[in-house]
């Protein structure tokens, strides 16, 4: 009976993108990537401390866990051409699986806003726009997540699609929608699963602010983080949000996650005090508060600026040495950073 229940839940997750309540991770790592020259992956963390943790599963012999609970990969495994490994950790009554990824992610400052859609004429926030961003060689592909009336997660920028308010519409109705490029309206599960087929482009997940109130925004946040953990997508996903409480909620649920704030009303010092990872502000905010770039860099916060499309503005930001630029013109920015 238990196996039937698990199978049924897995099918529901695959079809609707619903993460079961039990999907939240029992453990977490401080990092989920390795390289052939960086064999220490991260430190195992758990809400409930166990006297002893063990590595299990078919890949257990490829890893080690020391007395300080630092997980490392063995050199031969790290040099393999495998893009990632799943490793099972057990402690006390808890058991969890992590996916640790060979860090071949691109580092070129270019974040494709809602994917790469403009030049190709495809739909924003579509699976094709994500695939295009990967093919171009973008460092990241940004996308937006809303929650349906019955708590299914969908990828779309606006709160409405084809006249339907996503938050007030059940998933069965939303699933009937086709995007302008003919694709199905993507669930978060489908989008993440597509993104996890590669290890070049990071997935920049924006948690949209609910129009129905703070409580629903925080419920959306918890469901999003649970979905990322359920699919073992931690190595791929960074989070952004306009709601400061949402940013802090993500950090409480997933302390190792990179979380940056979008609204632009917080100084770098405030972001650092609240343990966020960086700022992700509109170009107008950054130009008005130019000193924030240097302040953020001194505080070891990341800097991202959106949505920047003109060559002059892109050139100015490159001269400021910001970490990332979110743009509707990734092709143009890629040409500029490669010069």
From TrEMBL:
Residues 108-337 form the GP-PDE domain. GO terms for molecular function: phosphoric diester hydrolase activity. One of its GO terms (biological process) is lipid metabolic process. Keywords: Signal. It holds the Pfam family GDPD. Residues 1-23 form the signal peptide. The keyword Zinc-finger does not apply. Gene3D superfamilies: Phosphatidylinositol (PI) phosphodiesterase. It comes from the Bacteria. This is Glycerophosphoryl diester phosphodiesterase. It comes from Spirosoma endophyticum.
């Amino acid at each position: 009976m238990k196996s039937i229940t698990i199978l049924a839940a897995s099918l529901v997750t695959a079809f609707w993108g619903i993460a079961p309540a039990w999907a939240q991770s029992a453990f977490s790592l401080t990092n989920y990537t390795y390289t052939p020259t960086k064999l220490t992956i991260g430190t195992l963390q758990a809400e409930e401390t166990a006297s002893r943790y063990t590595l299990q599963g078919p890949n257990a012999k490829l890893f080690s866990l020391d007395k300080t609970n630092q997980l490392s990969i063995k050199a031969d495994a790290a040099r393999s051409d495998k893009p990632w490994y799943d490793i099972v950790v057990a402690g006390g009554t808890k058991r969890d699986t992590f996916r640790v990824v060979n860090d071949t992610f691109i580092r070129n400052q270019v974040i494709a806003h809602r994917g790469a859609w403009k030049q190709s004429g495809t739909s924003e926030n579509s699976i094709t726009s994500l695939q295009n961003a990967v093919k171009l060689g973008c460092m990241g592909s940004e996308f937006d997540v809303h929650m349906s009336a019955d708590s299914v997660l969908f990828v779309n920028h606006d709160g409405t699609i084809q006249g339907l308010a996503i938050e007030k519409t059940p998933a069965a109705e939303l699933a009937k929608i086709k995007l302008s490029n003919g694709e199905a309206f993507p669930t978060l599960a489908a989008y993440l699963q597509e993104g996890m087929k590669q290890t070049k482009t990071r997935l920049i997940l924006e948690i949209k602010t609910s129009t129905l109130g703070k409580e629903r925004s925080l419920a959306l946040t918890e469901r999003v983080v649970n979905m990322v953990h359920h699919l073992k997508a931690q190595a791929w996903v960074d989070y952004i949000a306009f709601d400061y409480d949402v940013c802090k909620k993500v950090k409480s649920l997933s302390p190792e996650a990179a979380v940056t704030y979008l609204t632009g009303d917080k100084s770098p010092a405030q972001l650092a005090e609240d343990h966020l990872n960086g700022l992700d502000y509109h170009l107008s905010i950054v130009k008005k508060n130019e000193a924030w770039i240097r302040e953020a860099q001194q505080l070891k916060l990341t800097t991202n600026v959106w949505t920047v499309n003109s060559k002059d503005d892109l050139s100015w930001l490159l001269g400021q040495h910001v970490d990332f630029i979110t743009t509707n013109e990734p092709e143009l920015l890629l040409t500029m950073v490669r010069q």
